[in-house]
Specification:
- The structure is a single chain.
- The protein is an alpha/beta fold.
- It folds into two domains: 186 residues, SPOUT methyltransferase, trefoil knot domain (Alpha/beta knot), CATH 3.40.1280; 41 residues, no CATH class.
- Helix content is 38%, strand content 21%.
- Strands 4-5-3-2-1-7-6-8 form an eight-stranded mixed sheet, with helices on both faces.
- A hairpin with a 3-residue loop joins strand 2 and strand 3.
- Helix 4 packs parallel to helix 10 and helix 8 crosses helix 10.
């Protein structure tokens, strides 16, 4: 199994100190929604952010694209993927593998705002996404490891980093699977932010830092490469599909 942790993701409700900023008030009136119930979004609130925050915060679009890629991937359809979203402020969003996120961004934002408001969507008894507060990255990593251990498998914990050892992902994963004496899952941490580095102690808690290209790539490019490389390296076969069943 492949487990992906999107760490330090820049998704959060608008902080109180920005509620009265003109850009926030304007957007709040347009949506007929209280500022404290809205996601911080750099597209609309860029002028409210200062310094380094302006380059980094308010990027729920990264989480949206990540989910669209991961949840619709072949390895997820084969039951070989679990994702975890860790956010700024140490929130954990658990995502059911059956989730198919809205393709339209505004609908996705509304879904996340509801998740931040009540803690689950769509229902508490049958949740597809659950938000838990006060969960640091270290705890997310422990939960990912526990999931694999509960199924009789070990883990190898990897952090993606532009400063890491450059590897070709397919060959790297294939070599790992060939060498390991016990069956191990890959738990790979990816940064959920557009600029800078991890805020959490990711490098200290993982075994290896790797990069898949000599220059920085977008989150969605990295995820797409990892998903495909893992499927090929693990030799995961797809069920036979008749022409009438093809999309």
């Amino acid at each position: 199994m492949l487990q992906l942790i999107l760490a330090d993701s820049e998704v959060e409700l608008i902080p109180e100190e920005l509620w009265t900023h003109p850009a926030v008030l304007r957007h709040s009136r347009k949506r007929s929604k209280k500022a404290k119930e809205m996601l911080l979004d750099a597209t609309y609130h860029h002028s409210a952010l200062k310094g380094e925050d302006r380059k980094r915060r308010g990027r729920p679009d990264i989480v949206h694209t990540f989910l669209l890629l991961a949840q619709d991937s072949i390895i997820n359809k084969l039951g070989q993927l679990q994702i975890w979203i860790h956010t700024r402020g140490d929130n954990l969003i658990w995502v059911n593998p059956e989730v198919r996120p809205p393709k339209h961004y505004s609908r996705f934002v509304g879904l996340l705002e509801e998740l931040f408001r009540v803690g689950w969507v769509p229902t508490k008894t049958n949740p597809l996404m659950v938000l838990e507060k006060g969960v640091p990255y270290s705890e997310v990593l422990k939960r990912a490891e526990s999931l694999s251990r509960s199924q009789g498998r070990g883990v190898k914990k990897i952090a993606m980093s532009p400063q890491g050892m450059v590897v070709e992902p397919y060959h790297y994963m294939k070599e790992f699977m060939r060498k390991e004496g016990e069956v191990k899952d890959l738990v790979i941490t990816i940064g959920g932010f557009p600029h800078g580095d991890y805020l959490s102690p990711v490098y200290e808690l993982t075994e290896e830092s790797v990069s898949i290209y000599p220059v920085m790539l977008t989150v969605w490019t990295v995820v797409a490469e990892l998903l495909t490389s893992y499927r090929l390296a693990a030799d995961l076969t797809t069920p036979n599909v008749s022409p009438s069943e093809e999309a």
